[in-house]
Amino acid sequence: MTGDDLVALVDGELHFARAWGSGRIKLEAGLRDLLRLRKLI
Questions:
Q1: Could you write out the DSSP letters of every residue in the chain?
Q2: Which residues contact 1 (CB under 8 A, 6 or more apart)?
Q3: Which InterPro entries does the record cross-reference, listed alphabetically (predicted)?
Q4: pLDDT in tens, 1-30
Q5: What is the pTM of this model?
Q6: 12 vs 41: CA distance, rounded Å
Q7: What angle do CA 15, 20, 22 make, to 5 degrees?
Q8: How far apart are CA 21 and CA 3, in angstroms?
Q9: How far apart are CA 19 and CA 21, in angstroms?
Q10: Which of 10, 14, 31, 41 has the most Cβ atoms closer than 10 angstroms to its Cβ?
Q11: CB 14 within 8 A of CB 5
């Protein structure tokens, strides 16, 4: 993930699922970690 994508994600301008599906965000974690991350965003 680029810094600009991270800022857009935190600001709510970038939808996590769409960015992940398009390859802009790569996640190397288990499902449990993904659910925890979703609560933070």
A1: --HHHHHHHHHT-S-HHHHHHHTSS---S-HHHHHHHHHH-
A2: 9, 24, 25, 26
A3: SCP2_sterol-bd_dom_sf
A4: 888 998 998 898 998 889 989 998 887 878
A5: 0.58
A6: 8
A7: 100
A8: 18
A9: 5
A10: 14
A11: yes
- Read off the tokens for 24: 């802009």
What letter represents residue 23's amino acid?
A: G
Cα distance between residue 4 and residue 29, in whole Å:
22
pLDDT at 37 over 80: no
User: Looking up tokens 């790569």, which residue turns up?
Assistant: 26
Amino acid at 13: E
